[in-house]
Amino acid sequence: MVAHLLRLRLTMLGNGLRRSTWQVIGLVLGALYASSVFVGVLSGLAYLGRRDAELATTVLVLGGSLLVLAWWFLPLVAFGVDGSLDPHKLAPYAIPRKDLLLGLALAGVLGIPGIVTLLGVLGTAVVWARSPAAVAASVVCALVAVATCVVGSRASTTVLAPLRTSRRFREVAGVVVFLPVFVVVPALGWASRELEADRLSFTEFGVIISWLPFGAVWAVPGDVAEGDLGMAALRFAVAVGVVVVLVFTWSRALDRQVGAPVRGGTGGARVRGLGFLGAVRGSVVGAVAARCLTYWVRDPRYASSLAVVPLLPFLLVFLDAGNGTALLFLAPLAAFLLGWIVSADVAYDHGAFWLHVVTGVSGRDDRLGRVLAAGVVGLPVTLVFAVGSVWWTDRWADLPTVLGTGVAVLLSTLGLSSVVSARFPYPVPRPGEGPFASPQGSAVASLAVQTCGWLVLGALLLPTTVLAVGAVVTGTAALGWATLATGVSSGILWAVVGLRVGARIYDARSPELLQQVLASR
Amino acid sequence: MIPVPALALRGLAKRFGDTVAVAGISLDVPAGSFYGIVGPNGAGKTTMLSMATGLLRPDAGSASVCGVDVWAQPLEAKRTMGVLPDGMGVFDRLTGAQLVTYAGLLRGMDRATVARRTVDLLAVLDLAGAADTLVVDYSAGMTKKVTLAAALIHAPRLLVLDEPFEAVDPVSSSHIRQILAEYVRTGGTVIVSSHVMDLVERMCDHVAVVAAGRVLAAGTVDDVRAGRTLEERFVELVGSPHRSEGLSWLHTS
């Protein structure tokens, strides 16, 4: 039975690869990248192992702990846990629980992340090349560590599975859980600068982690290498205990999950009235804009982008070197983020886009409506951020420059997005998925389209950028006003050109566009 | 003079890679008819209807609605058509009322008419209580019904419905059938695809049997079934792959 489950998993992996060339290319590139990074890291560690075994252990413990935590919690946030062997789908087959557990766990290793983790963790044995006993310990611990990762991810997702079936939880968790990252990273940077005086040393920190459930297993080979077998046995006991507890938890949760019926979201959200659509008097452009605005607020894939915007000022304040230069990027950065969302608009609609095709919405109405919705959000944000950033840094002389750049970025991005979303819809999370769930094997296609888009955008913005840099560096007022004039006029130009071209492309190939977004998953 | 058919397909063809989905279909749907399209899974029904409604560009052939070519004059052709596609999803972050309103506004209708008809449609389709609920929280049947409302809002002359009764409960289903029958009685034309033969036999006056991307038989229901039930005739036309001896080991006695 276990063999059956594994074969099923391998078949699915193979079929998935056969379906998409992009995925194969992505896989190969990813493998090359990962292996080159990994060879570098390992040779560094091997060097460290010869020079300073204690430091090598600390690095292993910290790095390994991060890996375990990522396995445990990332699937919850990104909801990217591999669902191809969903216990629900297997429930009708009455598989003995022991076989199911073992099969699912081994199948969990048999994905791309699992294989990479397994090879990587086994590779850490090179650190102890001089001590055969430690190498042996390292190999055993590698297996325990991979089990901790895989079983832990199964346990965490299975335990929380009942919650995850509710739409509201998925949406809120998907956005909220990711936000701390934007706060924690700058905060850590700040803390590391402030707390240098009475710091907890790196090694002491590593020692504490090495007793925690996710860190113990990584310290065992180091103990063996140093000949401290008692310590090694203790930590190994902790590590194995963790796996046992995880298996037990997972098994219990699995029983509950397989026994319980599949539920949809409980209780529907009710919204009074027509919202933005109620304000439309009877124009197609207005209807499209109102619908898009509704989505900006209500669809987590848009809302997550919106949620990042208020955090941008904090991020830039922390990144700032002290003279306020970083904050000058606030308005253009926010303008870009908001404007670029439109480039994924049709892809976000997914199949629902048929309504636009079947009602014969013209390219002009469709493009303009989407851009208006983004503009209604983007323009005030850009203006407020522009004024706010010069007020905070007290650099009022730079206001025309910042305003000009911000408006240029917003309008040019909107124009370019209108073309991109009509011609090159790149794969995005589908409706109802978490905002950070990346669609299977789409990373390369999506990255290629977006990178090309950004290069073009850079070219469109070149005149404004040159003037803006000149204005900020030389502090010449005239250059600042020239930036404003150039920014606004070039922005309007590119917005109009983008809308026109986008509309023409849309009119020529809206049915093809529908089939394209339907096919991409 | 021959009246202009509500939908006329001429040599419509589509292939996806090596698979021929529709292999040259020609079909006339007379104005005022209640036309059923039946066929086994994968027969090309959805592909054919997608090409007829402007959602999928055909490789060859043409489709015209009330004499207007769908692919040469798409805007005019689309104005006269109401469409319910199968399995494409809807804007489900809108409430039922918002979705129907949106469909009306996209058709370029004025606000007052849209508002009045939205209320009527939701009431008739028994969705008034769920008007303010997000469509994502609807059941499959309710989603079908609200999409049907969106297809009806501009009072089209031709309705093209792909699998309209799938996942719809019997009460709602008979309700929808009444609405469609009334619509046909007052001069509208309805095309439905289905694989429930009984339903098509009772509901439709015309039927086309489609299999492997071709029309095997088309005409009035009585002509096509030729004295037998539609199901018997269908199995005969399509050909049953099953051997009669079947699964002897399944016999428990």
UniProtKB/TrEMBL annotation, chain A:
Presence of keyword Transmembrane helix: yes
This protein's UniProt keywords: Membrane, Transmembrane, Transmembrane helix
Top-level taxon in the UniProt lineage: Bacteria
Transmembrane stretches, start-end: 21-49, 55-79, 100-127, 133-151, 172-190, 202-220, 232-251, 271-290, 302-319, 325-348, 368-391, 447-473, 479-499
Keyword 4Fe-4S assigned: no
Protein name: ABC-2 type transport system permease protein
TrEMBL record, chain B:
Record GO cellular component, one term: plasma membrane
Cell compartments where the protein resides: Cell membrane
Domain ABC transporter, first and last residues per copy: 7-237
GO function terms (MF aspect): ATP binding; ATP hydrolysis activity
Keyword terms: Antibiotic resistance, ATP-binding, Nucleotide-binding, Transport
Protein name stated in the entry: ABC transporter ATP-binding protein
Keyword Iron belongs to the record: no
Entry-linked InterPro entries: AAA+_ATPase (IPR003593), ABC_transporter-like_ATP-bd (IPR003439), ABC_transporter_ATP-binding (IPR050763), P-loop_NTPase (IPR027417)
Membrane topology (UniProt): Peripheral membrane protein
Coiled coil ranges: none
One GO term of the biological process aspect: response to antibiotic
PANTHER family: ABC TRANSPORTER ATP-BINDING PROTEIN, DOXORUBICIN RESISTANCE ATP-BINDING PROTEIN DRRA
